[in-house]
Each structure stands twice: as C-alpha cells, then as structure tokens.
Protein 1
Amino acid sequence: MSNAAQLKISSELADKIRSHGAETYPHECCGALLGRDTEVAHRNVFREIHALYPLVNRRDDSPRNRFSLTSQDVLDAEKAARECGLEVVGWYHSHPDHPARPSQYDRDHAWPWYSYIIVSVANKVPEEMTSWRLTDDRSDFECEEICLQQAA
Amino acid sequence: MSVKVIIPTPLRVYAGKQESTQVSAKTVGEALGQLTTQFGELRKHLFTEDGKLRSFVNVYVNDEDIRYLAKESTPTKDGDTISIVPSIAGGSPKVQSPVSQPQTGAASKATTLSNEEILRYSRHLIMPEVGMEGQLKLKNAKVLLIGTGGLGAPLGLYLAAAGVGRLGLVDFDVVDFTNLQRQVTFGSDDVGKPKTAAAQARLSNLNPDIQIETFETKLTSENALDLFKDFDIIVDGTDNFPTRYLVNDACILLGKPNVYGSIFRFEGQVTVFGMPDGPCYRCLYPEPPPPGLVPSCAEGGVLGVLPGIVGSIQAMETIKLILGAGDSLAGRLLLFDALAMKFRELKLRKNHGCPMCGDHPTITKPIDYYEFCGVRGEEAPALNVQVPEITPRDLKSRLDRGDDLFVLDVREPHEFQICNLNGHLIPLGELPRRVHELDSSREIVAHCRSGKRSAEAVDFLRKAGFRKILNLKGGILAWSDEVDPSVPKY
C-alpha cells in the first residue's frame, strides 16, 4: 500500500484554500485537490497538488458543520482533473470555529487513498491546516505532513 | 452478461491498480459480489460489516444511479458499464464549544499548567484530542452542578478529577444514611452534614488545584439567573419536575447548555439541551406530568449503580462540550435500561412553537414552577385531602391500653418484609377489591412509610362509608422516631 507521508502544495494554493474557508465562514467550504502521485524507487510515494477545484457545499440544512457534494460534483472534478492530465487525489474542507482535526463524521464518510485537507477557520480568520489519510482498515485517520513549496 | 466495472481512483490500490475490470453478472449486486471476490480488500470499503452497501458509495449503471432503479437488484445487460462514484462528505464536530468563544474579561484566563498539573493530567495531555490546549480549556471552564446527590456524585468526582477549573455546587439538603447507597461522594462520617460542604471537602481533597464554590440554597425562580450567569455549562442532576423546568428555562434565557440526566428505578435518560438550534426540555416535555404520576427515587427506588452510569455520561458530555470534541447528545435522547443492559436513542427536534426556545417565545423570565407542575412545596407529603390523623405516640398508648384497634398496612409486600407494625397488609392498589377484608364497625388505623399513601387509603375508605378510620401521622418513619427506634427507617 502506498501511503504517502508527504503532501506537497505550493503556498499559493494553500492560501487559496484558506481564503476559500474565510469566504464561506461561518459555513464550511469544500473542493477537490487535483494532483499526481510520484513513485520514488517503487516505494516512497509523494503526492503533489497542482490545482484546486473549488466546489459548492450542497448541505443547506447544516452548512456550518457539514459539507457534502453530489456525484455530479465528483464526476466534474474528475473530468477537470483528466483535462489537465491530473487526478483527483483528495478533498479539502474547512472547520469553522473548530480545530483542524477530523471529526467522527469525517472518518465515517472517508475514502482510503484520498488526502483530506482540513483548514480551521476561527471567527473568519483561517488558522491551522492539516492533511489526513484513512488507514487501510478504516479504523483511523493518519496525519500526513504538508510541505509548503514556494512558487517557482 | 459481460459488464465493465469502473473502479474509482481511491480504490484502485486494492484492485491491482486497474481502472476497470470485466465481470459476468445479471445484476449490479452480482457484479459487485464478483468484484469483491476478485479483490477481497475492496469489500470493507464498499460494504458495511453486515453486508450493506456503504452510504457514501454511489453506484451507477451507465449514467443512472441505482438508488432510483432497483438498487442492487438492478439488472445488467451485455456491454453495460457500472461506475462506483465516491460520495464526498465531511464536517466538523456538531457541537460548538461554549468556552472556546472569545470571552469578555478574560484577564484571569489560565494560559499555562504547573509541573504538578502536567503530571496530574498526563493521561489527558498525551491524547491529541485533549492535549495542552484541551486541558487549558478544562482549567478555564466553569461548570455549575444542580444537585450533589446520585447524579451529582459521579459528576462532581469526574469533573473535579478532570481538572474543570471552577465547579459550583447547588444543594440545600443534608446527607442521610439512605443517600450512601448511591451518592458515592459521601462517607458514613458525612451523615448529618450539609451535602455541599461534604462534597466540597471530598472534591478538594481529590483535586486541590480547582476552585469549588458552594451554594447551600434551594434553586428558585428568584436566584437561578443570578447563580447561572457566571458559569459556562449547567448540569442538571435534580430529581423533581419543578426544578428541571426551572433549570431549563434559566439556561435558555441565558443561552447556556444544559446537560440533562434523569433516573428512575432501572432506567436513565441523558441529553444536552439549550444548544444553538437544539431542542430544550420543553420541546421534549411541553407539559409536566400530573403530580404523583411519576414517583421520585424516594418513592419508586433506584438501583445504586444507575446514577453512577447516567451521571458519568453527563460528565462525559460536559467535558466534550468544553473541549468542543465529538458529537454531543444535543438533539438525541439517550435511553438506558440497566435490566436489559441496552442503550437506545431517540431523535429530539426543536419545537418551533416552543414557548421557551421557539420562534416566538412567550416566557421571558422564570415563572412559578410549583404552580406550573401542580405541586405546592417540595415533597408535598400531605395531599390536598384532609383526613383524621393519630400521632404515633397516641397510637402506642392506645395499643398499650388494650383498645381494640385494627392496624392496616397499605404498603407493598417487599416493604412489609423490611419492617412492620404487625398490621394487616393490603397494598394501596389492591384496597378497592379487598375492602371486604375490613370490618367497618372496628376502629382502623392505616399506615404506610411516610403517611402519604395511607392518607389516600383513609380518604378512599371514608368515601366507601368507613367512619372510624385514622391515618398514622408520619407513618413508620415517625413511629421509629417517636416510639420505637428499633424499627428501621428506609
């Protein structure tokens, strides 16, 4: 199994995720992470995010603490990724007024392999950003390191 | 039928990194079955442990969602394509932490822990879900416990042990021997002491680093708002309806969460009221039950461990609210049945017409809750009916004189086994059909434990034509106090 321990993202894209979270506050923001996995020596995989695909939170009953996307959103994101030679490698969402830790709800709805970036937004100000991957046996989320890359 | 199954990217690692595979199947269910036989690792990501398709797995045949076809029995034909499309959802924990909000006058907020505190709370600190940040939230939290009895015991002990920085205790009662079977904060030495003082001594011994404030008073409509206003979370550990409505209303008026628990015999209930957008106690029980319908612990009894379990769940919910962790019980009523050893859950919804927390509230200040609940005075032992009485001392001297008195015991058989006055046993509920066992020409003295049920019996018998009938004032409890201390009180 190829568990990437590192997620590379440019500081510019990271800032975009943060400002998306600030924009939708007090509601949750969400979107797709488009990128690519690169294998090094057949084992060590690192994952790089090359683009974002911001989406609209479809939960109008409790958008402050839930987000969900339709199948069409997912298919659209996959199509957008394919068009630029990338894959949907994960998803991001915000936790308004909550720490950037996966909730039980996140865990219950998570897919393996995807990276889940969570940004905490406290009172409109984006704070901590973390990334998580579900373990193979679905029992837990593992934190993966976010390596901020300065734009070339 | 040869059908193509498209595997979504996150699952390809479990399917030999293939984007799709070919199976032969007549239905979607069969196709998925073959897929998971071929790639065993896929099973737990697509299906729950009891074999149901997971809620966040969408399956399409060509471009139709099978939910709108025949679900897993949807037929497939040659050349069809089945796509598994991930449904993406997530969210933050449901609760909003009431103490993580910026507070005014936060000058005294603790920002560090001493080395002793770090050692004391090390099992919290090493959990990322609590950590230093969470422990400081606990230290800065202010929780008010209403009642220091059966529910208050585990609540006080666990919240003090967890390091809740400021605990308020409200109770007007005094420890007695019947409390010790379940109120584990107290020891035998505490009997006769005020409960708040005894609890304070025990809790500050458990954790000297926290501040414990005692309010040895009855919670009333006059003092509730003033008592509550300095605390973040109110925990209801009371045993009567007037106080429950009062706690609820005061919490809603002040916008504070109310961690609610109640117990009766072998059953308990727990939930969290007063959260933003959540229901309140009045949404669940708009009207109090008729007085006397739901007996208190003193009347109905309670298994001693039960408040330990229910109070511990309340303590856990309180700590989760402080940490802002997990999903709170707001909007869910947790029911616990100790005999069946089962937990059940009911959904609670906010009533938009609720006079307290609805869209147009009509209650704007605490009301008279005894009147609302139809009870006057806390215990209301003397019913509204006035019946002729005899004191224990008078009964004793008349029996000693050899007067012809028939002693009627209207308690239950298991109470008779605890102690009795050699009376004739007819439980109150059986009296109407066993009335022929009584001789209306003889003088009858009816008694129970406290004088309450026997007053009803006397009232009933008088209406049935009995004229020479008296109620033993204060029941066996008074008999033990005034006549014969060898008769146990219970």
Note: The first helix of chain B runs from residue 9 to 12.
Protein 2
Amino acid sequence: MEYFLQQLINGLTLGAIYGLIAIGYTMVYGIIGMVNFAHGDVYMIGAFQAMIVLLITSALGMTWVPLQLLLMLVISVILTAAYGWTVERVAYRPLRGSTRLAPLISAIGMSIVLENYVQLLQGPRPKPIEPVIRGGFALTSQASGFVVQLGYLQIVIVLLTIVLMTGFAYMIAKTPLGRAQRACEQDRKMASLLGVNVDLTISQTFIMGAALAAVAGMMVTLYWGVNDFFMGFVAGIKAFTAAVLGGIGSLPGAMLGGVLIGLIEAFWSAYFSAEYKDVAAFSILVLVLIFRPTGLLGRPEVEKV
Amino acid sequence: MTDATLNRTAQTGSAAKSPSIIGVALKEAALTAVIVFLMSLLMVGFQTQAVQGQYLGYVTRYSDVFWAVIIIPAGRFVMALDRQGKTMPAVIVGALAFIYFFIGGALGVLELPIYKSIPLPYEQPMVNVIFGLGALYILGTALKSNLSAGQRRQTLEQREAAEAKSAKIARNISSILGPILVIGAVVLPMTPWGDRQLVDSLILVLTYVMLGWGLNIVVGLAGLLDLGYVAFYAVGAYTYGKLSTELGFSFWESLPLAGIMAASFGICLGFPVLRLRGDYLAIVTLGFGEMIRIVLINWQVFTGGPNGIGQITKITFFGYPFERSAPEGTTTFAQLFGLPFSSAHRVYFLYYVILVLALITNFVTMRLRRLPIGRAWEALREDETACRALGINPTNTKLTAFAMGAMFAGFAGSFFATRQGFISPESFTFIESAVILAIVVLGGMGSQVGVALAAILLIGLPEALRQLELYRMLAFGGSMVLIMLWRPKGLLAHRAPTILLNKHKKTKAAGAA
C-alpha cells in the first residue's frame, strides 16, 4: 500500500509535466489541425533557459530560493514564448492553406533544426545541476516498513500545474482571447469574416503553448536535474500520446491524458519493468485509439462530404 | 503570407507615402530586433559548460548576441522595403552582405589563414556562411519581386493555371529525368568519376531511394501517413541478422524471407489500426516504430540488446565470396573471373545489387498502379467514403498497401544488414522514419522521380558536406523546412491519377508515370 502511494505521487508529478506539454500540442492541433512536432524541442529550450537562469542567479550570489524560482519561471517563459512565436512565423504560417503533410514535414525539419541549434550552442553533453529544492514530508512512519516521501518539489509542481490549468481554463472560457481561439478552432474562415484576426490568434496560441512548455521544462530541470539537447524528443512524443489519449483538441483531455501517461509509466516501472514503460504507454494509446478513436474526452469527428 | 497581410501591404504600397514605407519597415525591424534579442539572450549569450570538471558554469558570448540583434533586423528592414515596392536597397544590401559573409566565411571553412585578417562578426566561419546564405535569400526574393513587379495579386484562375502549368512541367521533367537518372546510375561506376568513396555514398543514397519508393506506396499512393516505417526496415535487417548468424543463411536465401517477415509484421501491426484516419494513424505507427526499437534494445537474449548483432555474413556473388582467399573447396569472386583481388569489388557489387533492388521496387510500383488494387489505393487516397460506397473494402486495400510497403522496407533492411555486417537499434530511430517520410513528401507524393531527387538532395548533399560535421544535421533540417516553404507540394508535384476514364486524357497521364 505504501509503495502504491509512493508510485501514485511520482506518477502524478510526472503526469503534471506531461500534461503541460500536451496542452501545447492539443491547442495547436485544435486550431490549425497540425501536429507541431517541434513542440517537444521548444520544451527542451525552455528547460535549457530555465537552467541558465538558475546558473546565473547562483553565480550572482542569489540564495533566496523563491526569488530564484520566480526569475526562472518568468524569464524562461518569456524567452521560450519568443521561440514558439518564431517557429510558427517562420515554418508554419507560410504553409497555411497548403496540403496537410507540408506543415508536418516543415515541423519535423524545425525540430531537427532546434535540436542541432542547441547542440551547437550549448554542447552535446548532458548538463547536470545541483538540486535546488531538497527534502519533503514523510507521509508514513518508519514503523510501517516503507517510508512514503512527498517532496516539496513535487508539491510545487502539482500545485503550479493546477494553478496554471485553472487560469488557463478561465482564459479560454471567459476572455476575448479565449473566445477568438474557440472561434478559430470551429471555423477559421468564418471567424476571419467576423473580424477575428486569425493570424494573431494562432500566434497567440503558439505563444501560450510555448509558455506552458517552458514551465514544464523548468519543472523538469528542477525535478531531474539533467538537461540535454535530445530530451525534447521523447518527452514530446509522450506528451503527444497524452494529447491523443485524452482526445486531441480538448484541454481537459490533454491534462487527463498527461496524468494517465504519467501514472502508467510510474506504475509500470514500479511493478513490471522500467525498460518497457514506453511500450506500456504506447500500447495503452493503441488500445484507446482502437476502441475509442477520438480519445477519452474528444468529440467525435463528423465527416462532411 | 495570407491574403489579409498581402492586402494590407498592397494598400500601404499604393498610398505611396515614403515616410509610411520606411515607418512600416522600421516597425518590422524593431519587432525582429526584440524577438532576436529574446531568443539569443540566454541561448547564445551564455554557454553552459562544466567548470573544473565538476560544477556546471558558463562563459558569456555577449558580442554574438549583439551582432545577431544588429544584422538580422537589418535584413528584415530591407526585406520589408522590398515587399512594399522599394527593391533596390534589398538588392544592394543582399548582394554586399552575401559577398562579405559568404566569401569571408567560406575562406574560414577552407581553413585559409587570410580568414583571421577579415573583420567578421563571428568567430566560427560556418555561422558567417549561414548569414551569407540568409543574404542570398534576401537577394533572391528582391530580384524575383523585381521581375514580377505589379503582379503580386493573382486571381484564382491565374493561380490554378500556374499550378496546372507547373504540374505539366513536373510531368515533363519526370519523363525526361527518369531515364537519364537510371542510365547515369548504371554507367557511373564505370566512369573515371566513380571512385570507391562516391560509390559508397551512392549505395546509401540508393538505399534511401528504395525506402522512399517503398514508403511512397503507403503514403503517396494509398495516402496513409506512416511515421513508423523504419520498424519494417529493422525487421528486415534483424531477420537477416538472425538467419545469418544462427542458421548460416546467405544473403540471397534470406532476402525473400526478410521481405515476407516484414510484410507479415506490416499486416499484424496494420490490421488493428488501419481503420484510424490521418493523424491518428500517424501517431499509432510512430508508437509501433518506437515499440519495436525498445523491444530490440531490451530483448537482450534474442536481439543482442543495445550491442546489436555483429559478424553478419557479407554479401557473396551468388555463392562466390568477395574474399582474398577462399576456404578450401570454394572459389572467390576474383578467382572466378581471373581478376586480381580488390576490396572494391564488393562495393561495386553492392552498388549494383541495391540499384537493381530499387529499380524492382520502382517497377513493381509502376505496374501495381495500373492494376485494380493500385487504382483502389489512389481512389482511397482521394476519398474514402466514396470508395466504401463503390464497394471497395478499405481495410483490405490499406492492408495490401501497408504490407507491400513493409516488404520493400524488409528487402532494404536485409541489404543494410549485409552491407554493414553489424546492426544495432541505433540505426532504427524515429529520425530515420522522419527522413524517409521527408524524402517522399519533398519529392512530391506519388512521383517516383521526385523521390529519387529528394533522396539525392537530402542524403547525398549532407554526405558530400561531411567535413561540416556539426552543421550537417542543421543543414538537413533547414533544407527540409526551406524546400517545404519553396514548394509545399514537393519538388515534382503532380497528383494526377494514373488512369483516367477519359481517353484523350489517358495518353497525357501516361507520361506522368
């Protein structure tokens, strides 16, 4: 039981991170119907920038951890959003209205470019950093045999994700920006006829997706403490799997899918084998898609002739 | 660029107030400067590296950020002027910057000592070359807009006519270029230019041509987006690897088996998922590709894990080995023909084997397109609902396409194994699938010659630029993006059905093949 609880905590933390990345995929898919393959690499850039802010603040002698975290969050979010905007502007916007495969190939190319850009600038080696937030609560006592640890960092990650998700859900539901996004998602041409600036809305979607990916990148930097230029690939695929699992185009679905993927991974590594955890995640995905092709919370696609 | 922005620029252009033109350009340049500053501030400005082998520290590169923030917005400024009808600044600035950066950088790439004495903003020569290429792009757009001045806006008919024209040109190019490429490929090793190194790279290119043609059946003809194609390549390679090391099969004996094995994998994997559409199918195939790779890494007993399988039997000339000395009772290839032994023989033989295999793939595809099943593939690609209504079984049709594509990947994989003599999961990563898909899409889906061209461009060029090492993959990804931006439908795009009902159109379409 204690062991189970521990895996639940780990899985939820991991799932929160996947969920944040998955939102970027699901929003972009919802609004322009393309798989933004470079999103995983935007997340990687977010992680790198958060790491660099951490190094700079430490070198400047800043020791108050909350301020460090705030700086990491704000700077990395702003700078990564610039990457998200640029990727859309350079590689996707000129291809709008083209075949469905063209933006996908462009996105794969962009992903390769970003990976090698970071490799060239920051070097190919993994970058280990010292943990910033240590310690946590022991939920069970030593007497019961297995001590369940709930790290402070894990609390921060889950809480931050919940706050961001709530804010985000509010933004989509209530603000003019969210309305414009939903309008573009339903019918881009009609939205533009009614005075919605479609290009601007799509740009904002990419900026928001990149910002959330940057938050996820910062969390991973703190949680695992090792970054390398290739980290975006696997995380990106998993997050995309999460988005599809939850029903692509649906925001709560992305979060749900992220948490599910995180839990599956944690439990599979704990009870079966860590090597095959990705196989487990993909198998679940295949099963879900076979029996419920639109994902858990997705709307069925109505085909118009 | 969308119509909305075009419209806006057209209006500002017609207003012809010079301050507003400069103003718009300045605004764009300022925006670019902000974005470039944000992007480069941390990623370029600070390089993280281990200090004293222990802690992670950083070194600063402020000057690199500074020059990026100066140069890129300057380029953006002249491009904005160009877009509003003032072409001259873009031409002049583009040409000068191209000469300065590209030639200067090239001197550094060639490691000439004079490079040190040219005041260039970046220390690494390649970065300067990249800026030079950017300048070339500015120059190119400026010259193009200079030529087509006054015809920015096209009507729908004009655009359609232009598209039809380019499709026709693509067809003509394909029908001329196809035979030239084939003859060139056959003759090349016999000419003085066909030295061993070139032939070796061409073997790699041809492997990708074959994979591209195989995937073309799935993506180009049947319209199924497969992101896990490399899985079947791996199945073929491992089939031969196991058969040769465990059972002592030769390449020729296991080639058909590898194809059958890969095809049955295709059927097994395809059966449950082929009723999914579009992107769902893509992600599931991607998942399968990754799953097979993970199994290859972790099933130590059978696949050798990350170490892979070594000592795979090399290819033989239908039983005569390419060795210096044969074990007793056999003759080597050199002895058989009374030639002096040369290690190049095997390379040349491998080249012709893959050439023949690739041409067989091409031939089979071309014939299949004319069979009922091939027409069903093309029909399915265009409209699945209509196909169902007409009584075509979509699942079976898709399965045949999937299995056919997988079979050719299996052949290619088995060839890869015999060429390398060593296989490991490293060779079958997602990036390979992406590369093969990129070749198909860049070539123009369904166009056989286009696929060959794209393979030469994407595999051959980086191979030729091997000394650029680190920048090779950057160039690879960059060219994927650029080709898509330049020709979103692929290099030789034509999506005409192979067979049309109308008689006189049929003769036209026959040239498309």
Note: Chain B has a mean pLDDT of 81.
